[in-house]
Amino acid sequence: MNSNKLYVGGLPYSVNEDQLRDLFGAHGTVESATVIMDRMSGRSKGFGFVEMSSQEEAQAAIDKLNGTDLEGRSLTVNEAKPKEQRSGGGGGGGGRDRW
Question: b or e along 15-44 (b: 16 or more beta carbons within 10 Å of the residue's beta carbon)?
């Protein structure tokens, strides 16, 4: 593990950022806690991100919280993957053989 940023899935829709911060705060210092919201409805999308102050604390939070139950939902906690670059081009060489 080389990051202290965590993906948190399976969040109950009622959980807010303060509750997320409190949940992870039991396992170390929380640098940031974000619940991802739907722009259209303003409701939680059921996942978020937490950044811990160290890799050790992040790993401890994964070990303690992944698979645990929160308000009847099973949490998925793992290392956040880097956001994929979205390019406007590409397409696998589709420019050839057009009739």
Answer: beeebbeebbeebbebeebebeeeeeeeeb
